Amino acid sequence: MHEQVVIPGGSPIRVKWNDLPHFEFPWHFHYEMEIVFVLRSYGMRFVADNTESFDEGDLVLVGSQVPHYWKNDPEFYSDDSDLRLNAIIVQFSADFMEKAINNYPEMTHIKELFERSARGIYFSRNFSSFMEDKFKLLYNSRGFKRLLLFLEILDAMAREREYRLLASANYSRKGSVLKDDRLKKILNYINLNYTRQLSLDEISSSFGMNPSAFSRYFKHKTSKTFVQYVNDMRVNYACKLLQEGESTIVNICFECGFNNLSNFNRFFKSKTGITPKQYSDSLS
Fold first, then answer.
1. Comparing C-alpha atoms, which of 60, 65, 20 is closest to residue 44?
2. 130-156 pLDDT tens trace
3. Are residues 185 and 261 in the same domain?
């Protein structure tokens, strides 16, 4: 799902303190970058093609357009559960201080941090413990003081050496789409319709282009064909449904927009290296 993030007041930064029974947002992406600092909770974390458990002290930086999803363990969803989620979420514009970060040598390390975030970055528990008070102070600050604190946090994250990249080396997402409003509209259209039969003729005519011109434009902007992009979204959604474990593989096949099980198995294995059944078995 494409989340439309609203950062209020023209500020480049949004800081939330989630105090909820459990994580609620499904498998999604957004153009903004995001820091998730789990203060209290546990479950499974999904970032791009990486799946891991998380618990208290989990600190992750997610880059622009990287799909992600935090899901609590089943006991959090019980009607009589007294478990709670507490997490500080920081969302900020992908072009945050773009000119300074791209041109000033003093900020080269932050530019490199942002580049690494395209695969998601997990930081060590020692580092997250050290940074906890900073994040709480960030939540409680406002205005220019919040901006300065945020820069201090980015500086610390960029200099920290105890980190791990989450997505595999083969995972990538084209960053140039951020500059193209027409492509944003196209991707949003795909996001709303990829679970049904969506043809090249339909989408090209919807945006006033003939199929061949649309195909050239889309491949140039995303490095993927229209069919590859749609099937990748379908496989990503299938992974989410398999993780939830509430539907059969056959039902998931059709719910994600594939027209037969053979195509579903073929595209799924092409993207993940394993079949849907093998993927499902690996989660148990």
1. 60
2. 999 999 999 999 889 999 999 999 999
3. yes
